[in-house]
Amino acid sequence: MIEYLNQLDASILLFFNGMHSPFFDKFMMLCTGRFIWIPMYVTILLILIKSFKPKQVLLYAIALAIAITLTDQTCSSIIRPIFERLRPSNPENPLSQYIHIVNGYRGGSYGFPSCHAANSFALAVFVVCLVRRRRLAFFIFGWAILNSYSRIYLGVHYPGDLLTGAIVGSFFGYMCYRAARRFNTETDGTVSHTYRIPVFKLNLEPFQQTIGITVGDIMIFTGTITLFIIIASSLINIS
Q1: 80-137, pLDDT tens digit by residue?
Q2: Which string of DSSP letters, residue by residue, matches 31-70?
Q3: How far apart (Å, rounded) are the C-alpha atoms in residues 147 and 29?
Q4: What residues form DSSP beta bridges with 200?
Q5: Measured by CB atoms within 10 angstroms of the end CB, which terminus of the chain is less buried, N or C?
Q6: What CA–CA distance (Å, rounded) separates 36 from 190?
């Protein structure tokens, strides 16, 4: 059974890793970066500031930081040393000769589970639980999936690495959110919904309409702009 799952994992990886183009090579390398999404992360702090009192902001910020830390350390320091599953891109892995490597990027030695997927889903689950808006949920889970998929495209993780990482991250994201709500004594454990109140309004005079822009909308807008910057950067100097 385990051998079958490993073969299935490798087959799915090779299928998606084999679909390459100069544009997506650049696109996925940029998407997988940690720092390019910093503007979007900052908007999460804006959501907290808009939604809660200073003590509560600190509480939820610490809870989110703990969720990411627990997720990352569980994957990298506990699970990986136990299973020691080589990344598909690792030269010591026989499969590596069939992997398309982008810009010489191979990652570290072991890849099970994926810290990228784990941290992305820990953040996504925490934010979705905190800000229960459908369009924000679609956006941030879409971002987490894209961030995870980039790891298959680059050949540094098996699909199983991503699935396990997503489960670990989702667990810690949810548990830390629940813990923060329990310690949120100022509002008796309930979550403020002031983030639904527009930060500012746009008057569309030709259409005689007014659109309210919330902090959640700002987060979606910031993430979308970052994505467009990645696309534009990926289109430059494609040979």
Answers
A1: 999 999 999 999 999 999 999 999 999 889 999 999 999 999 999 999 998 878 888 9
A2: HT-SSTTHHHHHHHHHHHHHHS-HHHHHHHHHHHHHHHHH
A3: 10
A4: 213
A5: C
A6: 33
Task: Name beta bridge partners: 210.
Answer: 203
Burial class (CB in 10 A: 0-12, 13-18, 19+), 68: buried
Find all residues with CB under 8 Å of 31, minimum gap 6, and list them: 146, 147, 150, 230
Measured torsion, CA atoms of residues 90, 94, 99, 103, in degrees rounded to the nearest 10: 30
Q: Tokens for 80?
A: 């990986």
User: The dihedral of CA 131, 199, 42, 135: what is its sign?
Assistant: positive
- Six-digit token pair at 234? 């990926």
For the chain, the maximum distance between any two Cα atoms, rounded to a whole number of angstroms, is: 64
Question: In which residue are the tokens 């289109």 written?
Answer: 235
22-37 as b/e, with b when 16 or more CB fall inside 10 Å?
eeebbbbbbbbeeeeb
| Omega cis (within 30) before 113 | yes
Backbone phi, then psi, for 201, in 5-degree steps?
-125, 145
Residue 130: per-residue pLDDT:
86
Model confidence band, residue 237 (pLDDT cutoffs 50, 70, 90)? low
Alpha-carbon separation of residue 209 from 127, 135, 201, 212, 220 (angstroms): 30, 21, 10, 10, 21
For the chain, the first-to-last Cα distance in angstroms comes to 44
